[in-house]
Design brief:
It is built from five helices and two strands. With about 130 residues, the protein is mainly α. Helix 1 packs parallel to helix 4 and helix 4 runs antiparallel to helix 5. About 20% of the residues are buried. The model has no long low-confidence stretch (mean pLDDT about 80).
């Protein structure tokens, strides 16, 4: 992995560490990681004919999708439009956590344990 790609991965991880999400959403997504099947789940989540190559571009696509869902969640009672679906949000969070783990493993030396069991998204203050 080139130095530029490594910096890109680090910047993605830093951005994820700053995000705040409801505790229940994060707990549910972490529980779903055990059942994540990349080939079928990622294809479905991203609505693509095949799962993309693992890496920063895939994680960025998932981050953008998750932010869109988070915006819907926060405005669900304020405006009309596309509804927020909790199940969809959870499946996107599962994919985001799994793909971030894959990306972290790719840049972490084999002798060092992976520093991220899941992205360190911080629960939002006040719960839901």
């Amino acid at each position: 992995m080139s130095c530029l790609e490594r910096e890109s991965v680090v910047s993605i991880m830093q951005a994820l560490n700053r995000e705040r999400r409801p505790r229940l959403l994060l707990q549910t997504a972490r529980a779903g990681l055990a059942e994540y099947r990349r080939a079928s789940d990622l294809r479905r989540v991203l609505r693509l004919p095949a799962a993309p190559v693992p890496g920063p571009a895939t994680v960025r696509a998932l981050i953008a999708l998750e932010r869109e869902l988070e915006d819907r969640r926060q405005r669900r009672f304020q405006t009309a439009g596309e509804p927020w679906r909790p199940a969809r949000h959870v499946e996107v969070m599962i994919a985001l956590m799994a793909e971030t783990n894959l990306m972290a493993e790719a840049i972490t030396p084999v002798s060092t344990p992976t520093p991220f069991s899941t992205p360190r998204l911080v629960p939002a203050a006040g719960g839901v």
